[in-house]
Write a structure and sequence with these properties.
Layout (H helix, E strand, L loop, with lengths): L1 H12 L10 H21 L3 E2 L1 H4 L1 E5 L7 H12 L3 E5 L5 E6 L6 H12 L7 E5 L1 H29 L2 H25 L2 E2 L1 H28 L11 H37 L6 H30 L3 H31 L34
Parallel strand pairs: 1-6
Antiparallel strand pairs: 2-4, 2-5, 3-4
Helix pairs in contact: 1-9, 2-7, 2-10, 4-5, 6-7, 6-8, 7-8, 7-10, 8-9, 8-10, 9-10
Length: 370
């Protein structure tokens, strides 16, 4: 941990730096590839929408020895629809039948009790009508749209429209990846999934805003100097907040990983998967997009401005001049290191002294007699 702290301090002071912005084309390519994979997953497999969105029935049994596969077979025979069965921590089963007419719920419940050899009263049933599912889906989309609009307006006021646009692109990137993972994995989409999505989008914005705030502070008088371009300062802002972003992301991922892998996987509490997967994937994608997508995109948008183009031209010209002067200085230093054979030959033998003016008869310099 001390090494990580020292690394963070050195990154903040600029003693070391990773060129995130300079290699942005690589990150853009990786993000496009992941996004295309997620879109293909959505198009091919689609989302496994829960009964809260489609309508249907949920039957919860008490502790039973019936296996998950047997319960799925019984539920399909009783209802005529595909069923999703999850093992509960209590030893019971949670049987979801989407798209089933709620009027057939009593008959389905009785058939399940007969096949599983349990008392019908020990099976609890919850019914969701199709209209209620449509209303839930519409409210979810409305909430997501309002969230996006408010985020763009706030960032445009607090920072500028370019940063707001970059943050919006990063958010769309995070949503697409998360929903694509849901399609590929096949986890059920429930209202808890929507809550998880909204939560991770806010968390993703936290990392992005931290970098944007540092970038805004360091670029106040950027056109009054000729040492750094906008991309240079953007890269320094990422490096200065890099360890902070890593630490906060890891701390947030640990409890979510516990819910997903231990609670949902090891302990079999499948109802935790709907929210924990969205949180886990979204937190990781949000940390990635704030570093590799949002800030490099802001640098691209800013350096398209005429004044930033002029600044970049001055900075590169000054660097080229400094490099040329350094090269000339190295050449002069290299030329002065000559060996003995290159030096002028030394004068050997007696030296002929020039005759002094105004010498006296006795050769004294002043010509005066004593």
């Amino acid at each position: 941990m001390s090494k990580l702290g020292n690394l963070g301090a050195r990154l903040h002071r600029g003693e070391i730096s990773y060129d995130f912005v300079g290699k942005r084309k690589i990150w853009y390519g990786v993000s496009i590839l992941i996004t295309i994979t997620a879109i293909v997953g959505l198009a091919v497999r689609g989302l496994n929408m829960g009964i809260d969105f489609q309508g249907g029935a949920v039957f919860t049994t008490s502790k039973t020895s019936v296996s998950v596969s047997q319960a799925e077979s019984y539920a399909q025979q009783a209802s005529g629809h595909d069923a999703v069965v999850q093992k509960l921590g209590t030893g019971g089963l949670r049987i979801q039948i989407a798209g089933m007419d709620t009027e057939k719920s009593d008959a389905t419940k009785a058939a399940l009790a007969k096949d599983m050899k349990v008392d019908p009263e020990s099976i609890n049933s919850d019914l969701v009508g199709p209209s209620w599912g449509d209303e839930i889906a519409n409210k979810a989309w409305e909430g997501l749209g309002i969230f996006m609009v408010l985020v763009v307006i706030y960032l445009a006021i607090a920072f500028e429209w370019r940063m707001a646009l970059a943050a919006l692109v990063a958010l769309i990137h995070d949503i697409t990846i998360t929903t694509g993972i849901y399609a590929l994995v096949g986890f059920e989409v429930t209202p808890g999934t929507v809550i998880g999505l909204l939560t991770i989008l806010g968390y993703s914005l936290y990392d992005t805003v931290v970098v944007f705030d540092s970038l805004k502070e360091q670029t106040k008088d950027i056109t009054k100097q000729t040492r750094f371009t906008y991309s240079d300062i953007a890269n320094h802002s990422i490096n200065g907040t890099l360890v902070r972003s890593i630490n906060t992301t890891v701390v947030a991922l640990l409890p979510v990983a516990g819910l997903l892998f231990i609670g949902g996987g090891f302990l079999g509490a499948g109802t935790l998967n709907d929210i924990s997967l969205s949180l886990f994937v979204g937190l990781a994608a949000g940390a990635y997009s704030s570093i590799f997508i949002a800030t490099p995109l802001v640098a691209d948008l800013k350096e398209a401005e005429p004044q930033m183009k002029a600044l970049k031209k001055r900075v590169l010209a000054k660097r080229a001049q400094a490099a040329a002067e350094e090269e000339m200085a190295d050449a002069r230093v290299g030329g002065s290191d000559e060996g003995p054979e290159d030096a002028a030959p030394a004068v050997v033998g007696p030296r002929n002294q020039p005759a002094s003016r105004n010498r006296g008869g006795r050769g004294r310099p002043s010509g005066k007699r004593r």
